Amino acid sequence: MVEFALVLPLLLLVLLGIVDFGQAFAYKNDETHLANSAARYVAVNACSPCGGQTVNTYIKTQAESAKLRDPSTGITVTISFADNAGKFSGDSGFGPPALNNHCTGASVKVKIQYNYSFLGFLGVPPVVITGSSTMRLERDWKGNAGTGVGSGTDHYNVVAGTADSTNPNC
Predict the structure, then answer these.
(1) Cα torsion at 154, 51, 30, 136 (round to 10°)?
(2) Which of 11, 69, 114, 152 is most buried, judged by most C-beta within 10 A?
(3) In the chain, where do the E strands start and end?
(4) For residues 164 and 142, is the Cβ–Cβ distance under 8 A?
């Protein structure tokens, strides 16, 4: 009995750690799937299930877990367009792209992040779990606030279906 009492807390900690790691792995898989879906919607510039919402907002509602869907603590969705050299924010030599210079063949990257606390009862600081996807645009974007691409240097709230195939910058 004494040996069992000494070993039980360690066994429970290992068991809970395995279950918690499995949940984190499932979140990672879900984030990667959501990033792929969002990147595809942006690449083809169409999102029929979005129902007028931005792709960012719609993707947040499609997460498998209620924790990931929670608006206050859930996932964050970042859509970034590559600069003229094909680099993204954070890359060496990145220069913010012009808002209306997203041409067919340019890259778009969707990054989805969630702050996950492993074994939260132990007070371990959260770890950022990230899923991402990069695709090439299949239609030109002529982006500005009026057509669904928000302001900023490289992060956008994208409304699909606002492409302009006569973008003069392409």
Answers:
(1) -40
(2) 114
(3) 76-81, 107-116, 127-136, 155-156
(4) yes
Tell which residue, 44, 2, 22, 46, has the closest CA to residue 129: 22
**What's the whole-model pTM score?**
0.80
- Tell me the CA end-to-end span of the chain in Å, nearest whole number: 76
Task: Compute the distance between CA of residue 131 and CA of residue 31 in angstroms, rounded to an integer.
Answer: 5
| Residues, the chain | 170
CB 161 within 8 A of CB 47: yes
pLDDT digits (tens, 9 = 90+) for 39-71: 998 888 777 888 777 788 889 999 998 999 998
Calpha distance 112→13 (Å, rounded): 29
79-91 confidence digits (pLDDT tens) = 888 877 778 877 8
For residue 18 the two structure tokens come to: 């395995």
